[in-house]
Amino acid sequence: MPETPARPSKPELLRPREMPRRGKGTSLTRRVALIHALAHIEFVAIDLAFDMIGRFGGQFPRAFTDDWMRVGAEEAMHFVLLDRRLREMDSFYGQLPAHEGLWGAAIDTAHDVSARLAIVPMVLEARGLDITLETVERFKQQGDYLTAKVLNRIYDDEINHVSYGTKWFEYVCSERNEPPHAQWKSLVKMHFRGGLKPPFNDSARHAAGLTREYYIGVE
Fold first, then answer.
1. 19-55 CB burial, b ≥16 within 10 A, e <16
2. Contact at 8 Å (CB) between 106 and 120?
3. β-bridge partners, 99
4. What percent of the chain clears pLDDT 70, i.e. is strictly above it?
């Protein structure tokens, strides 16, 4: 597998400290900037799903590939829905710069499937469960019910994505005779900078199998 997947010429990818602040401008321009940022996350998530298959799929039963093929297809659908909203708002994916660091988790965990599962679905996607409903309410308050509907659809799918990560992480731990909660905390401490910060959407995480025994007390 290539270290970095092919990328379009746009958007321009910037380091985190170089990203413009989204708090400036009109309500419309702020909404466009947020939707663009979300579209970029979904775009990178497509590559993360298929890299999971190509890099690690041979170590698992066929069901592993089936699960991540579904994830990749749904991430692509999420991207299309968000890009469509941008076009309806006279914008498009690539018009604004985007965060270059999202692929860093893939590079950092390319050596070990348990690390990849621990960080990408069980930390990064789980964080999406924590913040998406609040984001939905922000769009509703601004009268943008179409974007709110798209984000609700993404939220429902992401619960399944986190559940696949948890399921296969626990499978790996069982095969290696490792305690999953302790192993996950060790991998997060090793590979995730910044620590896990509340608030947590406990009900959505629990629905995905990511129980509080995993993440409470991890800083």
1. beeeeeeeeeebbbbebbbbbbbbbbbbbbbbbbbeb
2. yes
3. 14
4. 97
Q: Mean of the pLDDT values across residues 158-167?
A: 98
CB contact burial 57-76 (16+ within 10 A = b; e otherwise) = beebeeebbebbeebbebbb
| Structure tokens that stand for 51 in this block | 């890299």
Tens-digit pLDDT profile for residues 38-97: 999 999 999 999 999 999 999 999 999 999 999 999 999 999 999 999 999 999 999 999
Q: Which domains does the chain have, with CATH numbers?
A: 13-215 (1.20.1260.10)
Tokens of residue 95, six digits: 């018009």
Q: Quick one: which of 138, 142, 126, 147 has its CA closest to 199? A: 126
Strands 98-99, 13-14: parallel, antiparallel or unpaired by DSSP? parallel
Asked whether the CA dihedral 137, 71, 53, 11 is positive or negative, the reply is negative
> From the CA atom positions of the chain, what is the Rg in Å?
17
Render pLDDT for 175-213 as a digit per residue (tens, 0 to 9).
999 999 999 999 999 999 878 989 999 999 999 999 999
Q: What share of the chain is helix, strand, coil (3-state, %, to 5)?
A: 70, 0, 25
All residues at 6 or more sequence positions from 82 whose CB lies less than 8 Å from its CB, including other chains? 35, 38, 39, 42, 93, 150
- In eight-state DSSP terms, residue 98 is E
Q: Can you tell me the distance from the alpha carbon of 159 to that of 206, in angstroms, rounded to the nearest whole number?
A: 9
Distances (CA, A) of 147 to 40, 81, 84, 153: 15, 9, 10, 10
